[in-house]
């Protein structure tokens, strides 16, 4: 059975005080919670502080990051390598987020390179896929998701997805308050899994597919009740310890 993963993407939010309060609060809220992996991805500036706070806490929070470069070192101003992330204990690395694809012009091929580089360095890629509102209305959702996944499969083989995480995030639902219904999300997750199964049923059965896009404590249970939704990539609600922990607890309960 797949183990659920609930991950908080803090995006461009944070301060020393906020990171400290949020992680201490989360540690307290998650005490005794089992059956779900809980990860956080703070801005790179706060990885050191987050690592220290997590190491002192009792809950087993996984440290992640929001991006990585495709170079190990050298004259690449402003970039961060996999080894630097590992140096601070980060293991789950978000790549291909729609905000990176849109604002930084990251192509499917470039995201696939990041995926391969993370795997090469023993890190867990959290591969974001998803369609725009226009693509959704045109009935292109499954085709868009398949294309984004195929950028990895066609260059690295379907086995590359083993141990990785896929996060399906309909772009029109990110931070908008809109959200796909649980049934709609399940339909897309099942289609994504079926697409992978065309290459390998074994990989498809094992790969964790999260849902992301305005996930909140109020709707989390409905998502996690679906058989192909294995957790969540959470934005706004991850900035509140009580809300984020409630989502993690809902995943643990639903996937017992």
Walk me through what this model shows.
By secondary structure, the protein is α/β, with parallel strands linked by helices. It has a single domain (5-72, 90-255), classed as Aldolase class I (TIM Barrel). Helix content is 45%, strand content 15%. It has eleven helices and eight strands. The chain has an eight-stranded parallel β-barrel, surrounded by six helices. The N and C termini lie close together (10 Å).
Summarize the structure.
This protein is of the alpha/beta class and 256 residues long. It has one domain: Aldolase class I (TIM Barrel, Alpha-Beta Barrel). The chain has eleven helices and eight strands.
Helix content: 40-55%
Low-confidence stretches: none
The CATH topology annotation reads as: TIM Barrel
What is the number of helices? 11
Tell me the CATH superfamily: Aldolase class I
Task: Work out the radius of gyration.
Answer: 17 Å
What's the CATH architecture?
A: Alpha-Beta Barrel
Shape category: globular
Question: How are the strands ordered across the major sheet?
Answer: 1-2-3-4-5-6-7-8
**Structural class of the secondary structure composition?**
alpha/beta
Give the CATH level 1 class: Alpha Beta
Order of helices and strands: EHEHEHEHHEHHEHHEHEH
Strand content: 5-15%
Mean pLDDT: 96
First-to-last CA distance: 10 Å
DSSP, total strands: 8
Oligomer: single chain
